[in-house]
Amino acid sequence: MTDEHPALVLRGLAKQFDGKVAVAGVDLDVPAGSFYGLLGPNGAGKTTTLSMAVGLLRPDAGGARVLGHDVWADPVRAKQLLGVMPDGVRLFDRLSGAELLAYHGLLRGMDPAVVDQRAAELLDVLALGDAGRTLVVDYSAGMKKKIGLACALLHGPRLLVLDEPFEAVDPVSAALIRDILHRYVVGGGTVIFSSHVMEVVQRLCSHVAILAQGTIKRVGTLDEVRGDRSLEDVFVEVVGGRTATGEELAWLSR
Amino acid sequence: MALPVTSSGGREGGGTAGQVTSPDGPAVERVRPVSARHFVRLKLRVMGNSFRGQGWRVAMFAGSVIAGLWFAGTGFFLLAAPGLADEPTYALMTAAFGGGLLVLGWLLLPLVFFGVDETLDPARFALLPLSRRTLVTGLFAAALVSVPAVAALIAAGGLVLASGLLGGAAAALVAAVGVVAGLLLCVAASRAMTSAFATMLRSRRVRDLAAVLLAVLAALLGPLQIVALAAVRQADWDRLTGVARIVGWTPFGAPWTVGVDVAEGRAWAVPVKLLVTALTIGALLWWWSRSLESAMVGAAGGGPAKARSGPTRAGTGPAGARSGAVGQLFPWAVGWARRDRFGALVARECRYWWRDARRRANLITIAVVGIFVPVMVNFGGASFSTGDGTELAAPNSSPMLVSLSMVVVGALASVTLANQFGFDGSAYAANVVAGVSGRLELLARMAAFSVYVLPMLGVVAVLLGMVLGRPTWLGVMAGSLVASYGAGLAISAFVSVLGAYSLPETSNPFAMNSGAGVAKSFLALLSMLGAAAASVPMVVAAALLGDAWLWLAPPLGLAYGLGAALLGAYLAGDVLDRRTPELLTAITPRR
């Protein structure tokens, strides 16, 4: 790949909702070939940031570039290189898994024969083949995550943007998703995903950014960010959570 | 039977685990009783919060208040009319039939048109230790605080006035009691009905089916009304008074007729009728509380996924095209489409028009309305007002009138797309991420919808031509239909891009965001008027050109409709390209 450009560059992304600041100027450089974890507590602005990065939400200020292509000025090129799995967004769930994959593939302008072949393979690998013609709306939460990932992967994007890929996923499916993502990065792809599961981030990621209150608090390689402590300690310290309760809530123990 | 989720205070846990909240536990502060007042305040607070910083919601609420007042005023004077005109003979009939219609409306309308105001969703209370009685009375009280309830109360006030004028203060007082009881009956009936349906229809497939059946019923309401009106014209008043008397003893009429009874000197009937009402309300509330419980349990856990029909069916379709994923996506009706972006969009939309209950219900409405509107317009009052029931053979129709009715049908059909993106909800994100161009998106949606609608419109034209006995008018009808349909598609394209709103994603197929009903009808009305206005040339031509128009209409109408639709997709597509993310935000339901 001609990867002189970073896979994803965010510059000064900012967004307010009804006067409430959700994201207050985020700068981020995701190097090509990295496995990037975007960490943050609930409500930190992870979803908002990623939505703006992929063109689902128009930022109030700032911009995003995917492998050198501006998401807002040159959306077609940028979106070709992108695979996205948004969180809290429905799929076209009145389709069966195979139909959904075919839809995504054709929408990406792929050759029908290739779509057929890759869809069969993905359904097989993700253990969704048994679902047959069950509609996605009737899938379990974990199956929905997996079919969402399959849709994002189908056209072979150079950059995968995943919002909470491990939420509501059972350990077996999570391991499967981890393996697939790992293989994807080894093969030259770039992944950025949001999570608040430290264990997963620690195991997978080469780079980490910690987002809280709409700004990046820490950023760098995994080792740079955590130093000689555990990632969780750093995270709690940065986010400013409290670690102990003393007298308050005394009535909980009787 | 499952245990009730909401067992009050100390009942769960029994005596074994002393740590669990027990009413007499020393460390637990006194549990203060929850009254209906709390639910009412909660509802008002939720409503108030939803207005915050949302000018258009306030505007919509104001709109619904105005509509409610208009309805209330009209109803008031209609129901008060016998008293104002001093016509005691009609008093009983007005009270029994007017009140009965009110109850019927509360029963059926929420199911089909407006949906239930789910400001207070029962499922949200599932985890709170509230007894069933507290919950039902609370939710019931909260349900009374709504625009329709207040409007109905004002309207029914007309009965109080009528009774007062005819029978003095005592009659008015009794009527007032009856009206309040009647309102309670209405609200209880609508709640019990929707709740029972919502639980009965937990399974998605059954629910889809029921929604469709209800849509048919709703669409038939109009025609049935006409038949009823025709019947009324023929019936004699004495018989009707007899019917009214009987209705007055059923729950439909009992609460509304007590005032008239006093005025007409049948005071003995009052306690009996009030008892009938009270028993009915009690039964309805009991029924509601039963279904509430299962609604709350059901909301807690989604059902397990089960395979629809086993493993992939291979090679059953034409030429074995179904085997691959792509083959499965395309229904046979769009088998002609190329396997590319456009084809995929069309195929997906086609699947959705059938599989999404909301959309399917719309299609059915088009079919039913498409038949009845033209029949009504073209047979005018003629056949019904003569009353002797002989005539469908001499309709007072003309090419112009036929064109006009066809314009209405075409416009009505196209208006279904006025919130086409709202049907998708946040799923539309997939198209945004894939970078689908606006023109392609809109064209594909028009094409897919037309796959269903154009054949239906064709059937409408042929049927009407046969019924009217004027096969030569077929061309005029088809031309007007296609012209108005195409123009309507163009206008709906703009409305759907600029005026999109979100539809709720709940398990209750009857749920509606508060106020959305008004927005829906307003936007639909706007695009319908636009489509009808754009098709005026077809009607004018039909009026002016005479026989030549019979032959000119089909090609000109087709060209006009097709041109309008293409132009609409072309221009609205540019608008869509510029505001794709904003559209996505607009149709994503807030949580």
Automatic annotation (TrEMBL), chain A:
<dbReference type="InterPro" id="IPR027417">
    <property type="entry name" value="P-loop_NTPase"/>
</dbReference>
<protein>
    <submittedName>
        <fullName>ABC transporter ATP-binding protein</fullName>
    </submittedName>
</protein>
<dbReference type="InterPro" id="IPR050763">
    <property type="entry name" value="ABC_transporter_ATP-binding"/>
</dbReference>
<dbReference type="InterPro" id="IPR017871">
    <property type="entry name" value="ABC_transporter-like_CS"/>
</dbReference>
<keyword id="KW-0813">Transport</keyword>
<keyword id="KW-0046">Antibiotic resistance</keyword>
<dbReference type="GO" id="GO:0046677">
    <property type="term" value="P:response to antibiotic"/>
</dbReference>
<feature type="domain" description="ABC transporter">
    <location>
        <begin position="8"/>
        <end position="238"/>
    </location>
</feature>
<keyword id="KW-0547">Nucleotide-binding</keyword>
<dbReference type="GO" id="GO:0005524">
    <property type="term" value="F:ATP binding"/>
</dbReference>
<dbReference type="GO" id="GO:0016887">
    <property type="term" value="F:ATP hydrolysis activity"/>
</dbReference>
<dbReference type="InterPro" id="IPR003439">
    <property type="entry name" value="ABC_transporter-like_ATP-bd"/>
</dbReference>
<dbReference type="Pfam" id="PF00005">
    <property type="entry name" value="ABC_tran"/>
</dbReference>
<dbReference type="GO" id="GO:0005886">
    <property type="term" value="C:plasma membrane"/>
</dbReference>
<dbReference type="InterPro" id="IPR003593">
    <property type="entry name" value="AAA+_ATPase"/>
</dbReference>
<keyword id="KW-0067">ATP-binding</keyword>
